[in-house]
Amino acid sequence: MTAIVVEKLVKTFGSLVAVDNVSFTVEEGELFGFLGPNGAGKTTTINILTTLLKPTSGRALVGGYDVEKQADRVRRVVGLVPQELTVDDDLTGWENLMLQAGLYHIPRHEARRRASELLELVGLKEAANKKVETYSGGMRKRLDLISGLMHRPQILFLDEPTLGLDVQTRAAVWDYIKRLRKEMGMTIFMTTHYMDEADSLCDRIAIIDHGKIKAVDTPYNLKTSLGGDIIELELTADGQGLLQAVQQVRGVKRAAYVNGLLRVTAENGEKALPAILETLLRDGVRVGRVMMKKPSLEEVFLEYTGRKLREEEGSWEEDLRRRFVLRRARA
Amino acid sequence: MMRHRLTEIYVLTMRELKKWYRSPFLLMMTLVQPVIWMGLFGKALNLTGLLRIPDELLSQLPPNITAQIASIFNTVLSKFFGSAEVDYFTYMSVGMVSIVILFTSMSSGMGIAWDRRLGFLNKLLAAPIWRGSIIVSRVLAGVLRSVVQANMLLLVAIALGARYNPLLPLGPLAAVLALFMLSLGLASLFIALGVRLKTWESQMAVMNLLNLPLMFASNALYPIEMMPSWLRTVAQANPISYAVDTVRQTLVLGTAANTSTILINLGVVTAFALTLTAVGIALAEGGLRRK
User: Fold this and answer.
1) Per-residue model confidence as pLDDT tens digits over A217-232
2) Are A192 and A258 within one domain?
3) Domain range spanning residue A26?
4) Which candidate in A50, A84, A103 is best for mutational testing of the B interface (most B CBs within 10 A)?
5) Residues of B at the A interface (Cβ-Cβ below 8 Å)?
6) Measured between alpha carbons, how far is A163 from B222 in angstroms, rounded to an integer?
7) Domain check: are A177 and A205 in the same one?
8) Nearest CA in chain B to A56
9) From edge to edge, which strands make up the β-sheet containing A57-62?
10) Neighboring chain B residues of A148 at a CB cutoff of 8 Å
């Protein structure tokens, strides 16, 4: 069975199109990731799929139920771990889990059993009876994770599961996600703006930018779809006229020239690079700097969106406005 | 179905109550303000003391004249304060008890704005629970909290020298019922506002705008009969006045209490509570509906 089916989903806030005609499917048992910068529409999509927002148009089925017409059914089969830390500071870890159990009508003895199991699994057994306000950021996140699992959801939604955590804690949280998935075998839909996170956790990734899906595939396929290594050359003179010559070089698949930067995709970059340099020098163009990168999701993102994930150049004002509107709309 | 709703309401109410009784500091702080009001107003502004004849005057005047003056003053006291035996501190302490209800019920709307901000509300809304549980549990917790705090203030007042003369046996019960109803109405209203206004800053603004006018335009501190007619109209429309009068009649006036007035008061406060609860739940549910 298909866990999530999304067809032509659109969500607008005023004039802002947060989710723009998005379609995708997630298979049962799959760990599917939405990769994109802040403000790309990731959380808005999660909020629609978990029945917190209504779609403007389009259709979404979660666990076979329509999110618009069968919201209560959907709520029974999904678990949500929001971006923010949502465990209650004034309660103990144990009480947080029991609260969650109460909301899902899990019988008391069963709730106790599940809670101790889950606490054990994420190493919080000792801290269970302490107030959450004494927990570290990583401990809170772990508690948040398992509180979304108390009712054994078929489909778990993780919104930026490692946002704001330090490197070690992030790695630990990844481990827990992998372990939980192995133990419980549920479908997971997660969002992230960390390339390495998407790469190491997800079975398949959708690259999303400005509300649109740019590509969907496995991390491996996405990376190989680039067709090889990426060579970037900073030219001191205009290189527009040289594109043709560079494309003739053996092993080169694609070449593009933007603002003094020649970007070449080549099989076996180590061999292609000397030949490219020779070609350029022959035409009297000097090279200021050379960079060669092995294919990574970062490059994939750049390839599909034409911009870097971290440093969003150009229309940063537009991006900030977008982020602001989305944040307000969500609250 | 019904049992599910009750479980949801129970776990969410317990969450609220745990937060409250586990922070004794916060609990004390909410009592400090009314205690200060009570001390400053009740003890310093001794209105009924103005109408007592000093002893040295009494000894200088012939008995028939002092008797006349005393009878005039007693009539005035009875007219304004319900009984000539009431001292002002006792009179206003029951007013302050109702004001504690006002302040505490008002603040119960704050939590929902925090839950929204912290993302906890989203987690609740993503759960298969009746949306009303979120509101009803908050109202319940708010009412319980304010009624308990009001009773604590009553004990403080007794410790500070208030002399109560309860109408037994049902008087104290009627007093608690009036306080409960007042709190139910106010908590529902402010929780609905909390859902609608979204940020706690705007809620604070509304609370600061309403708390003092609601307190002063009532019979909590002064008799309504002493007010200019326009203010009297406002005070008579203020539900707090009916709760205060109920508590005053049943706890202070003793046998001088008027049973039919008490019943009318209770009717008005109950009607107020039920109306605002219905309006509040409808408003709040609308605010929680997804957009």
Assistant:
1) 999 999 888 878 888 8
2) no
3) 2-222
4) A103
5) 4, 7-8, 10-12, 15, 18-19, 22-23, 116-120, 122-129, 198, 290-291
6) 57
7) yes
8) B291
9) A16-27, A2-13, A57-62, A65-66
10) 123
Q: Could you tell me if residue A146 is inside a domain?
A: yes
- Pair A181, A235 in one domain: no
Q: pTM for the complete prediction?
A: 0.83
Q: Are residues A216 and A234 in the same domain?
A: no
Distance from CA of A232 to the nearest CA of B (A): 43
Domain range summary for chain B, segments of one domain joined by +: 2-46+87-288
Q: Which of A82, A91, A102 sits opposite B18 (nearest CB)?
A: A91
Positive or negative CA dihedral for B220, B224, B227, B231? positive
C-beta atoms of B126 and A86 within 8 A: no
Distance linking the first and last C-alpha atoms of chain B: 26
Query: CA of B5: which chain A residue's CA is closest?
Result: A103
Distance from CA of B137 to the nearest CA of A (A): 12
Of B185, B183, B163, B181, give the one whose Cα is nearest residue B254: B163
ipTM of the complex, rounded to two decimals = 0.83
Tell whether A177 and A259 lie within a shared domain: no
What's residue B84's pLDDT?
A: 67
Q: Find the residue in A nearest to B131 (Cα).
A: A72
Give me the residue from A54, A72, A95 closest to B128, CB to CB.
A72
Indicate if A248 and A198 belong to the same structural domain. no
Q: Report, in angstroms and rounded to the nearest whole number, the Rg of chain A calculated over CA atoms.
A: 23
The reply to whether A312 falls in a domain is no
- Nearest chain B residue to A73 by CA distance is B128
Phi, psi of A258, deg, nearest 5: -135, 125
Do residues A261 and A320 lie in contact, with contact meaning Cβ atoms separated by under 8 Å?
A: no
Which member of A53, A54, A86 has the closest CB to residue B123?
A86
Residue B210 near residue B240 (C-beta atoms within 8 A): no
Task: Name residues of chain A where pLDDT drops below 50.
Answer: 312-313
Listing from the earlier edge strand, what are the strands of the sheet with A261-266? A252-258, A261-266, A229-235, A287-293
Contacts of A76 in chain B (CB under 8 A): 128
Residues of B in contact with A78 (CB under 8 A): 126
Strands A78-81 and A2-13: unpaired
Q: CB neighbours of B16 closer than 8 A, spacing ≥ 6?
A: B111, B137, B138, B141, B142, B145
Q: How many residues does chain A have?
A: 331
Pick from B10, B124, B291: CB nearest A53: B291
In a domain, A97, yes or no: yes
Measured between CA atoms, how close is B202 to chain A, in angstroms?
15
Question: Taking chain B (291 residues) in consecutive chunks of 10 residues, what is each chunk's mean pLDDT?
Answer: 90 92 82 84 74 72 79 78 79 91 89 87 93 92 94 91 86 94 94 86 88 90 88 93 94 86 95 94 86 80
Give the DSSP H or E segment for A265: strand A261-266
Residue A248, Cβ density class (10 Å: 0-12 exposed, 13-18 middle, ≥19 buried): exposed
Q: Is-contact B105 B143, C-beta < 8 A?
A: yes
B22: distance to nearest CA of chain A, Å?
A: 8
CA–CA dist A86, B20 (Å, integer): 19
The dihedral of CA A128, A134, A136, A138: what is its sign?
positive
End-to-end CA distance of chain A: 33
